[in-house]
Amino acid sequence: MKLTEEMRKAMRVTVDYTNMTDKYLGDKGISEKTLDAHKKIAKAAHAYVSENRGKDELFMGWTELPYNQGEIVADILETAKLVRKKFDYFVVLGIGGSALGPTMAFNALCHLHYNDLPKSKRRGPKFFVEDNIDVKKTCFNVISKSGATSETMAQYLIISDLLKKEGVNIKENVIFTTDAAKGNLVKISKELGGVKSYVLPDGVGGRFSELCPVGLLPAAVLGIDIKTLLKGAAYMDKLCKTADLKKNPALLCATLQYIAMNDGKNIGVLMPYSDNLRYVSDWYAQLWAESLGKNVTLDGTPCNVGQTPVKALGVTDQHSQVQLYTEGPYDKVVTFLSVGSYKEKTPIPHGCENIPDVSFLGGHTMEELIQAENKATAHALTMAGRLNYTITLPEVNEFTLGQLLFLFELQTAYAGAMFNINTFNQPGVEAGKKATFALLGKPGYAEKKAELDAAAPDANYIV
């Protein structure tokens, strides 16, 4: 997609933080004085992220993904053409960001019932993150940096066994996304005679990987315009070059969340008012929780920071969770994802004229109804003194989704810098992985196995 500057401005993702301020929430809101008092720490966080851009050793290689993948994108597009021509199904084998990212992009940018459409109406093969399919007609994208991710490699063992039983050359039906030179998938590729592979860059952690081959290959296979996706990310990056809080949307969001967290708002709700964006919440939940949930600062000081992300969907959760948000504890920040113009306009016919409770809907559209309910929910929360702000996508497309993803990634990096933590590691996750290895008898984990055996359930506490 060719984008003029006017088109870029028209498609700009915006942040409205009106309902975070004391002007509208009274003493429950954030004052200009408080925001001004945080300008120094926000500026320092911005400087930290800016100064360390692209540094693989700090896992900040993701910051350069919108700019350094020209050759990779060209290769991915060629591979995607071959996959669409040869296969009826495309299956991602991955876990965490390797699964959440591709699923999120698929749901956001493809028809909501894509897999049910006839082949002539689809831009590519049917897409699954694991499902029951004909293995002969399926391309499997195995995603693991180390090739030692238990869940993913268990899936690979099952699939490779099925392919062998069907007499299929495994090499012909798999694509690896892994390390450039080391790891188990590299070894397996050599054993199979060279599997088509893409590199998961050293400085890109799983939860920041959607804009590298981890997410770009599945998206391209589906016919999603990955060049425009990256252009959207680059556009948001450009908007966030300034350390001015009122002009940098990601820095503003990070600062508001930082202030809120320090005031006991330890739950962050992400509530899209679009079925296409529902899985953005799943992707964001990993990004925010795994990045900020830390118990020690960079200088070794003990801490227990982070905010628990909660997934909600408008309008569905107006009829379930919003009751809690409106009248429950003052421990939440609600972030709405709103859409200015939906892809489909569904008119509501006139009818039931003798029933005013129903007839008033006639002449409107389903989109108007959803947008009205979005505004009404935000207003109700504001009237109840509950912190909330709205991120608006003018419409859902590759350019706006790229902006949104990069906004959230930068927001996360800024917030981590404000807390002075390592935003890009996940020691808590690694502890669980090691325990799993021990329980399943992986060599080298005998000591951990003994520790787990000693911690077996106590019969005195089982009812």
What does this structure look like?
- The protein is of the alpha/beta class and 463 residues long.
- The chain is 46% helix and 12% strand.
- The protein has 19 helices and 12 strands.
- Helix 11 crosses helix 17.
- The longest helix has 22 residues, at 398-419.
- The radius of gyration is 24 Å and the shape is globular.
Write the layout of secondary structure elements.
Elements: H1 5-10, E1 14-16, H2 22-25, H3 32-37, H4 39-51, H5 70-86, E2 89-93, H6 97-109, E3 126-128, E4 138-143, H7 150-165, H8 170-173, E5 174-178, H9 184-191, E6 197-199, H10 213-221, H11 226-239, H12 249-262, E7 267-272, H13 278-292, E8 294-296, E9 302-305, E10 308-311, H14 322-327, E11 332-339, H15 356-359, H16 366-383, E12 388-393, H17 398-419, H18 427-439, H19 446-454
Parallel strand pairs: 2-3, 2-4, 4-5, 5-6, 7-10, 7-11, 11-12
Antiparallel strand pairs: 1-12, 8-9
Helix pairs in contact: 4-12, 4-17, 5-10, 6-10, 6-13, 11-17, 12-17, 13-17, 18-19
Strand content: 5-15%
Unreliable sequence segments: none
Number of helices: 19
Order of the strands making up the biggest sheet: 1-12-11-7-10
Radius of gyration: 24 Å
Summarize the biggest pleated sheet. 5 strands, mixed
* Annotation, overall tally of beta strands: 12
Shape: globular
Helical/strand content category? alpha/beta
* Distance linking N and C termini: 62 Å
Assign a percent range to the helix content: 40-55%
Mean pLDDT: 96
Task: Describe, in short, the structure shown.
By secondary structure, the protein is an alpha/beta fold. It has helices at 5-10, 22-25, 32-37, 39-51, 70-86, 97-109, 150-165, 170-173, 184-191, 213-221, 226-239, 249-262, 278-292, 322-327, 356-359, 366-383, 398-419, 427-439, 446-454; strands spanning 14-16, 89-93, 126-128, 138-143, 174-178, 197-199, 267-272, 294-296, 302-305, 308-311, 332-339, 388-393.
